[in-house]
Amino acid sequence: MSNIQLLIFLSLPLIAGIISLLLSNKYLIGRLHAIFMISLFCFGLKIVNNIIALGSINLFNNTVYLDALSGLMIILITLVSTCASIYSIGYMLNDVEDKNASLFKIKIYYLLFSIFIFTMLLTVTVNSIGLIWIAIELTTLVSAFLVGFYNKESSVEASWKYIILCTVGISIAMIGIIICYYAVTNAGGIRELGLNWDYLLKTGNKLDPHLMKIAFIFILIGFGTKAGLAPMHTWLPDAHSEAPTPVSALLSGVLIKCAIYGIIRFTIITNQSTGAIFTSKYILIFGLISIGLSALFILTQKHIKRLLAYSSLEHIGIITCGIAFANPLSIFGALFHMFNHAMVKSLMFFSAGNLALKFHTKDMEHLKGVIQIMPVSGLFLLFGGLALSGMPPFSIFLSEFYILSGAMDGNHFISSIIFTLFLIIVFGGLSYHFLQITLGQVENNHTITISKGEISRSTVISLFIPFILISLFGIWIPSPLLKLLNEATRIISSGY
Amino acid sequence: MIFLITHLFPKESIELISNYVVVIVLIISILMTGCRRLETMVKLFAIQSFGIITIMLFAGSLNNNPSTYLFCGITFLGKCILVPWILSFVLKKIRINREVETYIGLPASMLLSCVLAALIFEIIPSIGIEKELQVLSSGLLKTSISIILIGLFIMMTRKKAFAQIMGLYVMENGIFALTVDTIFEMPQIVEMGVLLDILLGALVMGVWVYRIKQSFETINVEELRKLKG
């Protein structure tokens, strides 16, 4: 594994963006971009293969640090962006907002999309908390344009909310980073390396616990804003519902997990200094509030994309709870859940996007019995909705089960009872909504105007990839992925 | 330049000057809470950044830290020239300059931010953090925390989207002052990246203020309330 390989890997999305600027054929741009993203995914698999073989890799004079945790994130980002790119081919040509999107707008879309993927890959590969901070801020700045892509009043509002809230949040995280760096210099650490992961991992136990506690709280609040944890989540439903559908899948599937990645990384270091009880207490509170709040909003939701956004809030809560239960089994579950949620949420956003393209509405009162009009998307929406709420044959059930049994192992009885209670409420809400949408009574005035059939080939093909993965992983996890998950679990639980 | 500063002035007078600069930086952020014209806010922000850079320059020269000069130069270029230039360009484009109504009256908010600063000077103990580098003023830590909170205060009480950006940048300056006080400087690559983010942030937020003006005909954030539940 050399510097050049990684450089090519990171620059692939940028090259894809520049090429889509140069082309002048609407149909060609999307297909070429999808090919680029597929090759990015293959390249990512190769890099992850190297990571599994070598354990951890330091590149570019210690600026890049790759281990199993970043490997997992690389797979997630490249996989979701591949699906989103394939979906974009059909979506951008049959756009809801303007039917014949101009060539210029499509070019800008693909350019921003590519830079967005680049910044997310940067987040998970760099070796210092400072650089992660910079990369996360860059993701906000780039994706704000994608959130407000349609330039309507509501999308401008969502994008302004998103940019201001996330920037303030991330500024608060900067205070935490400064305090952490102060703790390092105070403990006599090397100044140049003071923010590097691999260095902090070695010297974590020498850091002053009082300073690290303050730093951890600032970073949890700061990155938690970007991750959409509950009291700071208000940007999340707006941004997810106003963005173009492929971008919603990216935001919900990987962007918020990049912030979770930052929190996990910092938790590992704080654990070495303060012990796991302190960190898990705070993370658990945020996680439980997230699930509880999302349960309330899911029950009363009318807008299908906002429903999916609140379900993202719920799953972020589940992941943070899994990290907070501080037990190897629950951490394994949380990491596996990251993967499953990214897959199932892409599937759901894509099929919901298909409905929105067909019916020209996102209001669930007018979306009923869609399975008769769009058999494929409707069926996927039905199965995806059941998977999302946690039905057994799919992999989400498995990871939630791991998290819960980890919690029982770690004697977190009260919190796991609350956790299960909220999950049951969410299960009821989600399955009610999705059964209504797919199998409910069809409204008569719609069947006249809307013809039966799917939107385009690409919007259907992109549904198959995530669906096959979630049904497969519910039964069997391939051994390389299992190895990766186990190694990442070992890295996180090393502090306990 | 090291020799210039330390030879021309005795150490005591440099300490005195930088104490004055710290006070000026704090007063400027209080002035910004009571500022009605948005253009003046941008100018005050530039002066405030210049003040913090001066403090850093003095501290660097007293501690014989030559890498500071390059960083101070680049920060000056970014925070005192480019960011104010971008922001005043945006102001010219949107043609809105006066803040007519705020959630709290401007004199009252000035008074409140004074009280806030006084409280922080009272609460935060002056000792407790031992410094690795000799940094000049003893009040810089309290000042920086006051500036961060005053920045948040500006963001909360103003209705204009542009004033919220200014609040964010005041906060950013407070964090910069906190960096100078506690750790003096971060690893070089991180410092440069943060500066890049601030520059890009000014550009991107400027674009969005312009778009808000285009779609809503105003930059009052009160109008942005379509998305709920």
Task: Give a description of the structure.
The complex is a heterodimer of chains A (496) and B (229). Helix content of chain A is 78%, strand content 1%. Chain A is mostly helical and 496 residues long. Chain A has three domains: 1-125; 139-264, no CATH class; 275-496, no CATH class. Chain A has a two-stranded antiparallel sheet with strand order 1-2. In chain A, helix 10 packs antiparallel against helix 11 (276-299) and helix 14 runs parallel beside helix 18 (457-473). The two termini of chain A are 31 Å apart. Chain B has one domain. Chain B is mainly α. Chains A and B meet through helix 5, helix 6 and helix 9 of A and helix 6, helix 7 and helix 8 of B.
- Runs of chain B in which pLDDT lies below 50 for 5 or more consecutive residues are none
Helix content of chain A: over 70%
Largest sheet of chain A: 2 strands, antiparallel
Beta-strand content bin of chain B: under 5%
Q: Which consecutive residue ranges of chain A, at least 5 long each, have pLDDT under 50?
A: none
> Strand tally of chain B, please?
0
* Helical content class of chain B: over 70%
How many β-strand stretches of chain A? Answer: 2
Cα shape of chain B: globular
Largest sheet: number of strands, sense, barrel closure of chain B: none
Distance between the termini of chain A: 31 Å
Overall number of domains of chain A: 3
Strand order of the largest sheet of chain A: 1-2
Give helix and strand order of chain B, one letter per element, not per position.
Answer: HHHHHHHH
Oligomeric grouping of the chains? heterodimer
Annotation field: number of helices of chain B: 8
What is the radius of gyration of chain A computed over CA atoms, rounded to a whole number of angstroms?
22 Å
> For the residues shown, what is the average pLDDT of chain B?
86
The helix-strand sequence of chain A is HHEEHHHHHHHHHHHHHHHHH
